[in-house]
Each structure stands twice: as C-alpha cells, then as structure tokens.
Amino acid sequence: MTDLSELADHEKTLLLLDDDKPFLTRLERAMEKRGFIVTVADSVAAGLAAVKSDPPAFAVVDLRLEDGNGLEVVSTLHEKRPEARAVVLTGYGNIATAVTAVKLGAVDYLAKPADADDVVKALLADAEIKPEPPENPMSADRVRWEHIQRVYELCDRNVSETARRLNMHRRTLQRILAKRAPR
C-alpha cells in the first residue's frame, strides 16, 4: 500500500489522538490535505469512544495523554479493526514502550515532533518491505539510556529495584533518570 488515492472513502478514515492542541490542529490540516478523512480526539476517553463507534482504517496516537496511555486506544482499535494501521507518537520515547506499542498492533513508533510526511510514510508503508537502515543510528550513550529506561519500566518505575538489578548506586540512577535522553 503506497497510495491513498487507490482507497475507498471508508478506508481513508484517520483518528488523530493528541492532547497538544496546536500540534493536533496542524496535523489534522496536513492529513486532510493528503486525502484522509480525519477525526480528532484529545483524550483517551474520546479516542476510545471514536474507535468504538466507528473504527478508523488509520490512527496516529500520542503515547502520554492527560487521562491515560494512548496504547489503550491502539489495543482497542486492533481488537475492533485488526487490519487498521496505527502509528504511536511520543516525546518520551524508549525501546520498552516501542516494543509494547508494536505488540498491541501499532505499525510504527515516531518521536515528536514528527512531520506529516513521516506520519503518512509510516501509515502507508508496505509491511513486506524492510526499511532502510538508519542514516544516524543511536549513539552508545543513547543505547545505554534506553536500556536503563527499559529496566526501569520493567521494575514498575521503582528506582531502588532498578538500581539493584543494574548493579548501580541508587543516586547515580536518579541522576541519569532526571536528565533528558542523549542523542
């Protein structure tokens, strides 16, 4: 699947779920220009209601929302319409949540701010074609940070338990967790 014009109208439906209103408005306009029939939601509750009433063919879902986790919407969409293609957007990316998103039915996981062309490319990507390797792969510092984040999530965000499992001093771990992700 590479071209939206080949699809029927009911196959062009798109749910945009994000609590960042200016970003949501810009993305809505950009996706409408590209031929999608867009429904917007700014909360998990509104997203779930939209999916339950009329499951869209596509969805772009923010991971962290004020009233919960966008992965609930991805999971519900996958149950209601298994062939639907969802992309998860987040400003707080880590490997653990990316893996969870894919297991729940997302086809891709993009860091914010993602531009509309990247979102469309992810939504319409052919599942059979493997993507090119990244031009700028993660640095060793970023890989380390991602590993620490994954263990932290697996330990239910318990700093002491995470530090014990990583064989690291608790205060050192707290300093690492307080910093932004390295590039």
UniProtKB/TrEMBL annotation:
Annotated positions of the 4-aspartylphosphate modification: D62
Gene Ontology MF terms in the entry: DNA binding
Database matches in InterPro entries: ActR_PrrA_rreg, Bact_response_regulator, CheY-like_superfamily, Sig_transdc_resp-reg_receiver
One example of a Gene Ontology biological process annotation: phosphorelay signal transduction system
Signal peptide: none
Pfam name, any one: Response_reg
Domain of life of the native organism: Bacteria
Domain Response regulatory, chain residue ranges per copy: 13-127
Protein name: DNA-binding response regulator
